[in-house]
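Hi V.,

Quick status before I head out on leave. The structure for the redesign project is tokenized and pasted below; the design run finished overnight.
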């Protein structure tokens, strides 16, 4: 949970609905493998709620993986978003897409990310 990024992640989830799993563990720790987390995964077609459970399965579900940064869209967030999509797909959801949520756009970085079919950018408008 982040003071700045959690509200941004939740802002995006509120526009979509479904079950938001915060700090979703995509990869479990194993010898030689570090754990990997997404800021959130939304399981679509579920009642709108927020969960922090770590044992939620996404196999066969329609999901959106979210990576959030409180700053400008940049290389770090692009990499996290692209590879999070690939990591989530290892968990065998029915469908998966990825969203980079950030506070400020970068048109070149957006074009690069959105050239990947299931990736998009959402710009957080700030607190209301």
């Amino acid at each position: 949970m982040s003071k700045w990024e959690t509200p941004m992640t939740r802002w995006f989830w509120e526009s979509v609905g479904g079950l938001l799993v915060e700090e979703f563990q995509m990869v479990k720790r194993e010898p030689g493998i570090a754990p990997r987390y997404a800021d959130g995964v939304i399981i679509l077609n579920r009642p709108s709620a927020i969960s922090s459970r770590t044992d939620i399965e996404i196999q066969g579900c329609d999901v959106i993986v979210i990576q959030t940064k409180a700053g400008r869209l940049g290389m770090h967030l692009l990499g996290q978003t692209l590879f999070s999509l690939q990591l989530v797909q290892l968990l065998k959801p029915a469908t998966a897409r990825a969203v980079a949520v950030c506070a400020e756009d970068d048109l070149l970085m957006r074009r690069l990310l959105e050239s990947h079919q299931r990736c998009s950018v959402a710009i957080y408008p700030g607190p209301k």
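Above is the designed sequence. Residues 43 and 63 are 5 Å apart (CA to CA).

G. will cover questions while I'm gone.

Best,
W.
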